[in-house]
Design a protein that fits this description.
By secondary structure, this protein is mainly α. Helices cover about 75% and strands about 0% of the residues. Bound molecules: protoporphyrin IX containing FE.
Length: about 170
């Protein structure tokens, strides 16, 4: 009897609609699932930063190449470096830490599991915001390349693109 119950449970688990399973992942506070989400998230950004590295490599493949403009090259450089460190290396570390630490110390979960889930989603939306500003700002004052430059971001002057429109 007990075996039947387990078998039924397994069948139910696999036949649940995809939306229900997705909802479970999105609303999860489980440290293992959050660890996996962090690592998947980092892999997505690894692909994006890899494409940026390829763009830089093509540009640098021979002298005086004009595959991309100097402005676009600078954007690729900033986004590649920022993405690799903050959206690949760090999330991978967080992922392993989330997955393994509670297991290693024999705890049921991380302390404050909801805060843990909130942190993951803040990280996720942070990455989206960074890339939204790259695509949407197109070199204006509020683009990451502009805001990442201390000289420019502490200045009250608009960027050249905005100044030209004024
Ligand atoms: C763990 C972090 C990083 C990884 C895994 C990584 C990975 C890579 C890879 C695989 C390439 C292509 C290499 C090639 O084409 O020869 C590359 C190129 C490049 N990366 Fe990174 N990168 C990281 C961090 C950074 C940072 C922090 C910066 C600077 C802020 C940076 C700047 C560059 C530049 C300028 C290139 C083009 C160089 C070239 O192709 O000659 N990278 N990166």
């Amino acid at each position: 009897m007990a075996t039947d119950a387990v078998a039924l449970g397994g069948a139910e688990l696999t036949s649940r609609p995809i939306v229900a399973r997705l909802h479970e992942w999105v609303t999860t506070v489980d440290h293992k699932r959050l660890g996996i989400l962090y690592i998947i998230y980092a892999m997505v950004f690894l692909m994006i930063a890899g494409i940026e590295a390829i763009v830089m490599r093509i540009q640098l493949i021979r002298p005086h190449n004009d595959f991309v403009s100097p402005q676009v090259f600078n954007r690729m450089f900033t986004m590649h470096g920022t993405t690799m460190i903050f959206f690949v290396v760090m999330p991978v570390l967080f992922g392993f830490a989330n997955y393994l630490t509670p297991l290693m110390i024999g705890a049921r979960d991380m302390a404050f599991p909801r805060l843990n889930a909130f942190s993951f989603w803040m990280t996720a939306f942070g990455g989206l915001l960074l890339y939204f500003s790259l695509v949407g700002a197109n070199g204006h004052c509020w683009s990451p390349a502009w805001a990442a430059s201390a000289r420019r971001s502490i200045s009250s002057l608009p960027c050249s693109a905005c100044a030209a429109r004024e």
